[in-house]
Amino acid sequence: MPSCIAERYPSLQAELVDVLSQATHCSSRDEQSWLLTFQAFQPSPSQGFRWNEYEMMALAAATTERERDAVTRFWDEHFPFLLSVRADYDYLAVRFSDGRVMHGLAPEWELPTVLAPSFDAFVESVTEAVASGELQHPLSVLL
């Protein structure tokens, strides 16, 4: 696990770590949505979006120290594992307080909605949706 992740997110779920560590690149066909594999957390001069790009954008838009602190606290509690630029700068993240998978989008990244009660439940729902060919929003935007 990259040190920047291990230090900031020491209690990542084993299932999520397994998924992110086994893939080297995983994206939609149009390259507009991608899973943040551990390779994505390594700095690269050619990398367009950093793994914490939405946090950096929110911090840049914050006008007070209080707002910046709130943004940082939010992202300390939410580990992003999928980003998309297809629609509204969407993301999926695991929220540490309860393990839920959250879906958020710009411009209010810090107001996400619950997508699944756990990472395992999320994987199950994606598997079922792909198998049935019925991707509902937000999966239709993200995959």
Residues in β-strands, percent? 15-25%
Tell me the domain tally.
1
Distance between the termini: 24 Å
Oligomer designation = single chain
Strand adjacency order, main sheet? 1-2-3-4-5
Helix content: 25-40%
H/E series, N to C? HHEHHEEEEHH
Low-confidence stretches: none
Mean residue pLDDT: 89
Summed up:
The protein has one domain. It is 38% helix and 17% strand. The chain has helices at residues 3-8, 14-22, 53-61, 65-77, 119-132, 139-142, and strands spanning 33-35, 78-84, 90-95, 101-104, 113-116.
Q: What is the fold's blueprint, element by element?
A:
Blueprint: H1 3-8, H2 14-22, E1 33-35, H3 53-61, H4 65-77, E2 78-84, E3 90-95, E4 101-104, E5 113-116, H5 119-132, H6 139-142
Antiparallel strand pairs: 1-2, 2-3, 3-4, 4-5
Q: If you had to describe this structure to a student in words, what would you say it looks like?
A:
The chain is an alpha+beta fold. The protein has one domain. Helices cover 38% and strands 17% of the residues. The chain has six helices and five strands, in the order ααβααββββαα. Strands 1-2-3-4-5 form a five-stranded antiparallel beta sheet. A hairpin with an 8-residue loop joins strand 4 and strand 5. Helix 3 runs antiparallel to helix 4. The mean pLDDT is 89.
Short descriptors:
17% strand; 5-stranded antiparallel β-sheet; alpha+beta; 143 residues
